[in-house]
Write a structure and sequence with these properties.
The protein contains 21 helices and five strands. The mean pLDDT is 93. The chain is α/β, with parallel strands linked by helices and 477 residues long. It has a five-stranded parallel beta sheet with strand order 3-2-1-4-5. It has three domains: 3-129, Rossmann fold; 131-167 and 208-285, Serine Threonine Protein Phosphatase 5, Tetratricopeptide repeat, CATH 1.25.40.80; 296-472, DNA Cyclobutane Dipyrimidine Photolyase, subunit A, domain 3.
């Protein structure tokens, strides 16, 4: 049994693939597979899910690349816990290789697969691939996981070496790819129980080719990243989050690009990549991060949880133009600018008084680049219940954020058509425009744009009182 099976998951590429490289170097015959895990797919409420379509399109390209090398991608649909051991037995392999996944479900699933393989006399090998430093590789001087980002980033940068960004070799061992003796046809979306979406309209090309093309475009504007990244109307961010989430590009190639450049833009982007690893580390040590606050004293927070407030926020009808524009962008594309994720999250929790977990769960259903660790970590950060060196009284003002980062209202007008005719002066808070101002400017605001759900200043005071009470309870005062 000098053969191995490589299980692709959130690493849908051939280049610089740790598990694939290790298997090819260790075995003379290597097969490749992917499982549409029913435990994950069955939990998706929307049968038009852009993520499923992106994965399937990426698998089509991956299969094409594998066929060029004399093999093909074996695709199964069912419980991964059952499908992987069964496929390993059918192929007669000695070992199964996969890249490590740090999310709670993935850890439970992989432990079950490993146990089943072991009972059948087969080996399980998992490899570090989606991060530079994982789990407990970076610890404080006291041997504990970091709880604040800046010290973690400093330790991460001190530890980084050129060897950490070297790509895993694949082509040198390509002769070890084996032709599978089982059926390899990719399923259709319909066979998976899903329908085609508007992914083509978003001009987001799947697969490694799409990732490489996007990386090339971003490299041309990387030097300006620090100065432009917070302005949602500009094409200033990397737009690589989806590719990084599904592994159509390797983290090593991105860190290598950032390390090669010495400017502020590259340094700022590298910090964003380190934030991603910080949250992956946190979810490894705190698997309950999606449900429980990192700062346990804020488990005592009493939220308002007004049903109509949450519904209006989800649909982008809060009366705050920048928040509504951000939510409309999410609904229509599955994407949201990072600055606006913070603004929208802060508004839900600290203006509307809604539990951060409800917002996290909503983003989880909608974001094309959804990643449990990053999403839960960022929501906790915005709600001031997570790993944050800043005090809980930091509250984003949605109007001043709009005035600062969308001064001309370009982003708002793109996503809130009711406000297209509103002049720059009034685009950020149009409900304050008096009848006299409307007549003076010759502007008529459409009546279907909502009045604001709350007054920010009053909501801020309620939030400060809410957090103060929770802090007092935690101290036992």
């Amino acid at each position: 049994m000098n053969a191995a099976l490589v299980w692709f998951r959130r690493d849908l590429r051939i280049d610089d693939h740790a598990a694939l490289s290790c298997a090819l170097q260790a075995y003379e015959a290597v097969y490749c597979c992917f499982v549409f895990d029913s435990a994950i797919l069955d939990a998706l409420l929307d049968r038009e899910d852009r993520r499923v379509e992106f994965i399937l399109d990426s698998l089509a390209e991956l299969d094409t690349e594998l066929r060029r090398r004399g093999t093909a991608l074996i695709v199964r649909h069912g419980s991964a816990v059952a499908e992987i051991p069964a496929l390993a037995a059918a192929l007669g392999v000695a070992a199964v290789y996969a890249n490590r996944d740090y999310e709670p479900y993935a850890r439970q699933r992989d432990a079950a697969v490993a146990a089943s393989l072991s009972a059948d006399g087969r080996l399980w090998h998992d490899c570090k691939d989606q991060v530079i430093f994982e789990c407990a590789e970076l610890l404080t001087g006291q041997g504990r996981p970091y709880g604040v980002f800046t010290p973690y980033r400093n330790a991460w940068l001190r530890r980084l070496s050129a060897a950490d960004t070297l790509p895993w070799p694949i082509e040198a061992y390509a002769a070890h790819f084996a032709t599978p003796p089982v059926a390899c046809a990719l399923p259709t979306l319909a066979q998976l129980g899903f329908a085609r979406t508007d992914l083509d309209r978003l001009e987001l090309k799947a697969g490694s080719s799409g990732a490489k093309a996007q990386m090339k475009l971003f490299a041309e504007r990387l030097d300006d990243y620090a100065a432009t990244r917070d302005y949602p109307a500009q094409e200033a961010t990397s737009c690589l989050s989806v590719h990084l989430r599904f592994g159509t590009i390797s983290i090593r190639s991105l860190v290598a690009l950032a390390s090669e450049r010495q400017g502020l833009g590259a340094q700022t982007w590298l910090s964003e990549l380190i934030w991603r690893e910080f949250y992956q580390m946190l979810v490894w040590h705190n698997p309950e991060m999606k449900e429980r606050a990192f700062r346990r004293e804020f488990d005592h927070l009493e939220y308002d949880d007004m049903p109509e407030f949450f519904g209006n926020w989800c649909s982008g009808h809060t009366g705050y133009p920048l928040v509504d524009a951000a939510m409309h962008q999410l609904l229509q594309t599955g994407l949201m600018h990072n600055r606006l994720r913070m603004v929208a999250a802060s508004f839900l929790v600290k203006d509307l008084g809604v539990d951060w977990r409800r917002g996290e769960a909503w983003f989880a259903t909608r974001l094309l680049d959804y990643d449990l660790a990053a999403n839960a970590g960022n929501w906790q950060w915005c709600a001031s219940v997570g790993c944050d060196a800043q005090p809980w009284f930091r509250i984003f003002n949605p109007v001043t954020q709009s005035e600062k980062f969308d001064a001309e209202g370009r982003f708002i007008r793109t996503w809130v058509p009711e406000l297209v005719a509103v002049p720059d002066k009034f685009i950020h808070a149009p409900w304050r425009m008096s009848r006299f101002d409307q007549e003076l400017c010759g502007v008529v605001i459409r009546r279907d744009y909502p009045v604001p759900l709350v007054d920010h200043a009053a909501a801020r005071m309620r939030t400060l009182a809410r957090y103060r009470r929770a802090s007092t309870i935690a101290k036992g005062d």
